[in-house]
Amino acid sequence: MKKKEKLVRLVMFALFMALIVIFTFTPYLGYITLGASISITTLHIVVILGAAILKKPYYGAALGFIWGMLCLIKAFMEPIMANVPFQNPLVSVLPRVVVGLVASLLIGVLLNTKLPTAVSVGIGSLVATLTNTVLVISALTIFNGFDTLLAGIKTSLTTIITVLIGVNGIIETVAAVILVPAIYIATEKFFKKQTK
After folding, report:
1. How many domains does the chain have?
2. DSSP assignments along 40-90, one per residue
């Protein structure tokens, strides 16, 4: 890898880190909270896009780690019902590291196939977002995070909250599949110009 390309990747990594910080701590940008117990995130889009553009698994994992650590910090800074389960790093950090790693590896493999770029990045975004949803829900189940979310709520509302979490995953997936390929194609052109 050329020195110039390494430098551009490092600068872009710093840019994605800054975006993760801004998204995390700007209300209604990185996390859209619905009531006290449901939160939709857009941060997976930044992490998946960064992992795709930087093309190295360690960058994807590092971006996921930064997202997870900031999620953990935010959970302690704003201990509302939706955030409390994320005070456990196995819920907040570990799934996000895996998301960055999966996005980087899968998109890297798919981009080397005959599939169109938008399709490759779209499939990678779909799988990475579903990875986030499945791992977070699994971690919440394993580490009793749902007990916190459902504390004091009647059984009939438990079903509603479970459905809302499922809808949340669908919204996050659709957003990633539409936005990441579009932004990736535009950004990749810019990246290639900078590394020539």
Report:
1. 1
2. EE-HHHHHHHHHHHH--HHHHHHHHHHHHHHHHHHHHHS--TTTGGGGSHH
What range defines the domain where residue 43 resides? Answer: 3-194
d(CA 22, CA 35): 22
Helix (H, G, I), strand (E, B) or coil at 176: helix
- Single pTM value for the model: 0.86
CATH for 181: 1.10.1760.20
Q: What is the pLDDT along the chain (196 residues), one digit of tens a residue?
A: 588 888 888 999 999 999 999 999 998 888 887 665 567 789 999 999 999 999 899 999 999 999 999 999 999 998 877 788 889 999 999 999 999 999 999 999 999 999 999 999 999 999 999 999 889 888 887 876 555 555 545 444 455 455 556 667 788 888 999 999 999 998 887 777 776 6
Report the distance separating Cα 127 and Cα 173, nearest Å. Answer: 9
Q: Rounded CA gap, 185 and 121, in Å?
A: 9
